[in-house]
Specification:
The chain is an alpha+beta fold. The chain contains 2 helices and 5 strands. The chain is globular.
Length: 123
């Protein structure tokens, strides 16, 4: 596994721990579909949360959350529909979140949790 993938996996594990610490239950890691991958799928208060994790080692390429555009969110929406169909989820509220992470000098992550991101999809 290359360094970039290891960093991505480590950030997803840290994001999952962060969410669990806030009372979320992790249902799936790296859910893959033909439309793309959803990094984490979680549940809290009977709501499904589809999470994109973006981590950066520094800000040379901008803030992590800025790398999640509308095209990515539309792909997540399509992948979420597949997840809900496969798991027979009907009439359950759901949302899309971004966990933006910035690596600190001590090896920990500064984490920002952006909840209920607009996917640009039709309501």
């Amino acid at each position: 596994m290359d360094k970039r993938r290891r960093f991505g996996n480590a950030s997803e594990v840290a994001a999952a721990r962060y969410l669990e610490g806030k009372g979320y239950r992790i249902l799936a890691h790296q859910f893959r579909t033909p439309h793309g991958e959803i990094d984490l799928i979680s549940e809290k208060d009977n709501e499904l949360i589809f999470v994109e994790v973006k981590a950066r080692k520094n800000l040379d390429f901008g803030y992590p959350e800025d790398a999640v555009g509308q095209a990515k969110l539309r792909k997540m929406l399509a992948a979420a529909e597949i997840y809900m169909e496969q798991n027979k989820v009907v009439d359950s509220p759901f949302r899309f979140d971004i966990i933006a992470m910035l690596l600190q000098k001590d090896g920990s992550f500064e984490i920002e949790h952006l909840e209920a991101v607009d996917t640009g999809g039709e309501e």
